[in-house]
Each structure stands twice: as C-alpha cells, then as structure tokens.
Design goal:
The protein is α/β, with parallel strands linked by helices and 184 residues long. It contains five helices and seven strands; from the N terminus they run E-E-H-E-H-E-H-E-H-E-H-E. It has a four-stranded parallel beta sheet, covered by helices on one side. Strands 1-2-7 form a three-stranded antiparallel beta sheet, with no helix packed on it.
Length: 184
C-alpha cells in the first residue's frame, strides 16, 4: 500500500546460458495512490487488468495490507493476485503457512465481498511458491478451496538453484530464479 524503494541495486541478473533470470526487486513501487491514478487514467482503454497485491516489507499487519489493497483497487481490477510467494520480501512466504493463509484468505475474500456491490464480481487468484513441500501444498490447496479462491497462479520464482546452472558467477545471487531452469 505504501511506496517503497525495493531492494538495493543491482537486483536483476540474467543467466543467458541457462535462459533464466534472478530478481530481487522487493516490491519496489510508488504506493497504492500512484498505481490507482495510473489505472484510473487508462480505465476507458478496455482489456484485462490484473492487480497483484502484496504487503509492505515493514508492515505490522500484513493481512490488513492485502485487505486495504482489495478495497482500494476493486473498481479498476479485472482480477486480484494475492501474492504470498515473493522470495524478495522477508517473511512474506510465511503467509503460505496454514494458519496465516487461512486468516489472510478469510479477510481477503470478506473484503472482496464487501466491495462487490460497487465493483462487481472480482476473481481472486492465489500466487504460490514452487518451493512448497507436498504437505504444505496440500494445506495451501485445502485452504484456498475452503475460502472459494477463484484460481491459483503456479508459480512464482524459486529460491532453489539447480546444479545444472551454467552461469555460476551469477547463480549464487540472492533472489528468485525464473525462466527455463524453473520449468521442471
């Protein structure tokens, strides 16, 4: 919801030989008011507008950040992505743990239903990490179904580093790996 600079630069590394990228952007953005102004300015252009919602890195109540963003962007969003899987915001992936996710999705879906009369039906998708264990994945899916989440986005970037990476000079950089190395 609030502007934040993101992580220190450099924060994007191309692994050209591997067809991959490591990023550690850290939700750098101008805050909800700036994003809302940009989306409102293009409201008559049509198309599908997905709004990726996440928490500020220093938030005392991360679930409340998601609720505020649902309420703020409902009128301009075609769908919401509840991002609990970025590896670049410390502790954000903890929201994938059963108790925290259950509370978060209950609050997000409640917020979506509160704004439905003025914004219409807005699907909520849950973006998850590829690094979840199978038992954790079972919990996430069960909780998403319990709260009638409209869909899943599989997946965000991974913090794992396959041994097959050729770009060894960059492979050790902190952040999320995406691209060809993640396909399997």
């Amino acid at each position: 919801p609030r502007a934040q600079a993101g992580n220190p630069k450099p924060r994007v590394f191309r692994l050209e030989a591997d067809g991959g990228v490591i990023n550690r952007l850290g939700f750098n953005n101008g805050g909800a008011p700036a994003a809302l102004a940009r989306l409102a300015a293009r409201a008559n252009e049509g198309g599908i507008v997905g709004v990726n919602v996440g928490a500020n890195r220093d938030s005392a109540d991360r679930a409340e950040d998601y609720v505020r963003l649902i309420e703020t962007f409902a009128a301009v969003a075609s769908y919401f992505t509840v991002n609990v899987s970025s590896p670049n915001t410390p502790g954000l992936r903890n929201l994938q743990q059963a108790e925290a996710l259950d509370d978060l999705l209950a609050r997000v879906i409640d917020a979506r239903e509160r704004v439905r009369p003025r914004a219409g039906p807005t699907p909520v998708l849950l973006k998850i990490s590829p690094d979840l264990s199978l038992p954790d994945l079972d919990d996430v899916i069960g909780i998403a179904r319990k709260h009638h989440v409209d869909g899943m986005i599989v997946s965000n970037t991974t913090i794992s580093r396959p041994g097959s990476l050729h770009a060894n000079d960059k492979a050790g950089e902190a952040g999320g790996l995406s691209g060809r190395p993640l396909f399997k």
